[in-house]
C-alpha cells in the first residue's frame, strides 16, 4: 500500500469498525449511524487525504465531516458500544429469517443476500477490510493475494448486490485479482 494512502487511512483504521461504518454509510447514502468515536477519527483526517480516500467522489467526505463536526460535541444518534479487550473487528452477521412473508414485510431480502455474499470474503481474515479500503479509494492494488483468491471465487451474482451503486468496481477488482499471483 502506498505510504501516503496508508497514512491517510491510519486514523480511520485505528478505530475498530470505523472503516466499515464509513463504507456502509457510503453504500446506503446515510451518515446518521456513525458512532462518535468514528466521527472523532473522521474529523482528524486532513483535507489533503480525502481526495486520496475518495478520489472519484469529492462530495462524500464533506458530508461525513459536516455530520461529524455537528454531532461530535453532542454525541451521534447511536450509542457508542463499550470496547472490551476481546472484541473482534466489525463483520456483518448472517441472520436467518423465519419466513418469506416476514422478509417481505421488513424488506430484508437484499440485505440478507448481501450478507450471504459477504460471508465468503469474511472467511479470509482481513479481506472485507481490504475490499472496503480498495473500494473507497478506487485502488484495487490494495487487495492482497489471499483476498484476491476469495474475490476470484465470488459468484458473479454477488457483485451487483455488494456494490449496488458502483458497477465499475467489480470488473476492476476481478481483473486485478485474476492476474495476481496467489
Secondary structure layout plus pairing:
Blueprint: H1 3-13, H2 18-28, H3 36-43, H4 50-53, H5 60-72, H6 100-106, H7 109-122, H8 127-137, H9 145-153, H10 159-162, H11 169-179
Helix pairs in contact: 3-5, 8-9, 9-11
Describe it for me?
Pfam families: Prolamin_like. With 182 residues, this protein is mainly alpha-helical. It has 2 domains: 3-72, no CATH class; 100-179, no CATH class. The protein has 11 helices and no strands. Helix 3 (36-43) crosses helix 5 and helix 9 (145-153) crosses helix 11 (169-179). The longest helix is centred in the middle third of the chain and has 14 residues, at 109-122. The protein is globular. Mean pLDDT is 74; it is low at 75-109.
Strand content: under 5%
The major sheet is characterized as: none
Number of helices: 11
Helix proportion: 55-70%
Radius of gyration, taken over Cα atoms and rounded to an integer in Å: 17 Å
Residue ranges: pLDDT <50 for 5 or more in a row?
A: 75-109
Number of strands: 0
| End-to-end gap | 17 Å
Query: Which class of secondary structure composition applies to the elements?
Result: mainly alpha
Shape: globular
If you average the pLDDT, what whole number results? 74
Number of domains: 2
Q: Give helix and strand order, one letter per element, not per position.
A: HHHHHHHHHHH
Descriptive tags:
Prolamin-like domain-containing protein; Prolamin-like; 2 domains; signal; mainly alpha; 0% strand; 182 residues; 57% helix
